[in-house]
Structure formats: C-alpha cells, structure tokens
Amino acid sequence: MQDISDAIENEGFSESTLQIIDELTNDIENGSTDFPRFNQQEHAGLCKAGPALIGASLVASHAAGSLAASGHAAGSQGGPANWQIDELQEKLIEQWAKAARLWVEDSDSVVSKNFGPMIAQGAEAKVYYRTGSPAVLKERASIYSTTQKALDAIVLHNHLFPETAMHVIGYTRDADGLLRIILTQPYVRCLRLATKEEIDDLVTGKGFRDNRAGQGVNYISDRIVLEDMHPANVFIDELTARPICIDCIVKFVSNK
User: What is the gyration radius of the CA atoms in the chain, in angstroms?
Assistant: First the structure.
C-alpha cells in the first residue's frame, strides 16, 4: 500500500501509478497478497467482486490513510470525520476510474442500450434487465458513511451470499451528482417472498443472531452486522426453493 500512496501523492493517477495498482490488484486476486481489511473467508468475496472493486478499495484505503496522516502531522486530536473521508475517497476513486477507463459518462443511456430497460429503482440502486439475460445490472449508490464501507458491503455480501455475488464493472455519477457503483448480479426468479422464520433460519446457519430481540430484520455476528433483511430483499428462489438474499445492508461490527 505504501507504494500506491507514494505514487498517488507524487504522480497522481499516471500510467505508472495505474500499473502499480493493477499489479497489487492481481496479487490480491491470485492470493499472493492479503488485503488486511478482510479475513481468508471474506477474500473470496473480494475476488468475486472483481478488479474494479479491488482497485477502488486500494484507492479508498490510501485516501483514509492520507487524511489520518495529515491530521497527525498537524497535531489534530482523533481521526478525520466520516464526511471528510468520504469526500476524498469519492474524489480519488473518480480520478482513478477515469484514468483506468472504468468511468461511464451518461450511464443511464449506456446501460439501457447494453443491458436493457430499468425495471426497478430504490433508495440504493437502479436495476436494469433484458428478458432472457442471466444477470441484472445495478447502478448502486452508497447509503454508508464512507465510500470504503460501500465497497466493503459488496465484498461482505459476496462472502455471505455467493449465489447472488455482485461483480463491479465501473463507476459513474447520476443526474443528482451521486457516485454510483456499476455492477452485475445473477438474475434470480422469485417463487415468493421469504417469511421471517425462513430468513431467521438462513442467517442463523451463517452464524448470526437476532439484533433486535426478534422484533426486526437486523442480525449480528461477532464480526458482521446484517440489516434490512426483509422479504423484499430475501425471497424463495424458484429453482432451489430456498431463501436467497438479493441485497441488504452489511457492514463490519467495528470500524475498519
């Protein structure tokens, strides 16, 4: 990481910097280098998310580290605020994505042309799908306190729910100026919505316990928090007749 930080500070996102990021991304993908944020089981989710996410995570880590370092140098007490981290992470990820040709301008029209019409829109994602395609495409906005945590959420989702793994292919900004992560995800045919009991069974088998005394849709393990696990995000797969999670809020218990 220090090589990446030095390169960004000294050269910006030059060809040389991009090469350093690509080389470390490849090392992480092939397992020769660890990404300290994730344990061995979560590493598979990181790799499923693809090089476009790994590269952005490396850039985001540099942003957080550089803010912390500059604060310490100035004698500031505590770390930088989340809004400061998020602002710099967004700025640098956009610069990197443009240099790495992972940035999509006018994404709504580009996505509609290549992946089909928009079929749903929620607070977090716009969803596009062409009939017969094995995957949907999502433009996913962050509902997390920093961009790094939004990227982490994709990794953790892939780790916990590999049958609906998300693969990042690019980045964009929507008409409101929001940074959006462009990703693909397997299309799943819904037999019916899952019941609360079926959702409980699904997450209990993965080491989670109810985080609201049975009153809500939030769960926790020793390491990870799951929220928003309601039937609109978890339903019964037509092919397997088992509960399957399409999306939820997922994050580390502690700040990483």
Answer: 19
To the question of pTM greater than 0.70 for the whole model, the response is: yes
User: What stretches of the chain show up as alpha helix (H) in DSSP?
Assistant: 2-11, 15-29, 40-49, 51-73, 82-99, 107-115, 147-160, 196-204
What SS3 state is found at 125? Answer: strand
pLDDT tens-place string over residues 120-139: 988 789 999 999 999 999 99
Q: Where are the domains of the chain?
A: 2-99, 107-186, 190-252
Paired tokens of 168 = 């990042």
**pLDDT tens digits, 21-45:** 999 999 999 999 999 889 999 999 9
Q: Which fold has domain 107-186?
A: Phosphorylase Kinase; domain 1 (3.30.200)
Helices 82-99 & 147-160, crossing angle to 10 degrees?
80
Residue among 182, 50, 22 nearest 114 (CA)? 182
Closest CA to 242 of 205, 208, 210, 217: 205
Give pLDDT tens digits for 213-251. 666 689 999 999 999 998 889 999 999 999 999 999 999
CB atoms within 10 A of CB 142: 20
Give the Cα separation of 138 and 239 in Å (integer).
22
> Whole-angstrom Cα distance, residue 49 to residue 184?
9
